[in-house]
Every structure is written in C-alpha cells, then in structure tokens.
Structure prediction request, 150 residues.
Amino acid sequence: MRTTHVMTAGLIGLLAAMPAGASAQVSVSVTLGAHLGPPVRVFAYSPERYGPWREDYRRWTPVIVYEFGGAYYPREVRGGREVEIYRYRDHYFLPPDDRDWIGADRRYDYRRRPVHDDDHEDRGWGRGRGRGRGHGHGGDGGDGGDGGDG
Prediction:
C-alpha cells in the first residue's frame, strides 16, 4: 500500500512539472524569434530580373546577412554565419554562379560568398527561378545556364 502512495505522488509531481517546462520552451522560442526579426527572402541571381552581371553589377549593393537555422537575417545573429549577397531595389539575391564573376566586383568579399547548400528561396542555385508568388521571372523554364560550355 505504501509503495502505491509513493508512486502516485511521484506521478502527480511529474505531471505537474510538464506544463511548466512546455511553457518555458514556448517562451524561449517566441523571445528568440522576436529578437531575430523576420528573415530576409533571398533569391538566385537572374539576368532577367537584375540585368546581365557584366553590365549591371555596379548597380547592386553588396550586403551582409546572417544565416542561422536555414534562414537569412539582416542583423547579426549569435551563432549565425556571415554571408555576403547582393541587394537591388527591394530584392536580395545570390551572386552570379559564373566562374568569370569571381574577382570581378572589388566591393564584394568573396570569402563570405554563399555556398551551394545554403537554404534560400530558390533551390535552383543560379537558375533564376524564385520560389513563391510573384517572384519567378516566368521564363522559358530552360536549364538556366550562362551559355558557356563549362
């Protein structure tokens, strides 16, 4: 009989502790999300949207964003990785995926460039097809290559 009382008291204590722990987790995640702010939507470079890079890259502004948890944020995020991308008007986009682009823009820090497995709105790195309504260029759906044979 005494063992039953001890087990019942332990179970009640365990159940009482569970809601408090869950509410602390929710509080932490909400606070963290409020601190980070909304993520920046980043798209693949598209000559149709941003112009041919050889002619128009001087119009683009290199900016640093912080990759954290698969998203990009405009402010520094503890534990985040600095990534340099471009901004043109209201759009953030990855640099061109062209070997000739490397070293062409002296304002850009190539050590901070994105890597191919970065998570961004357009999974087709360098193909110019954005994901989401109103962000695709509505092109021909081709391979998105740069016309080179490399």
In short: The chain has a mean pLDDT of 71. The chain has three helices and five strands. The first strand starts at residue 42 and ends at 43.
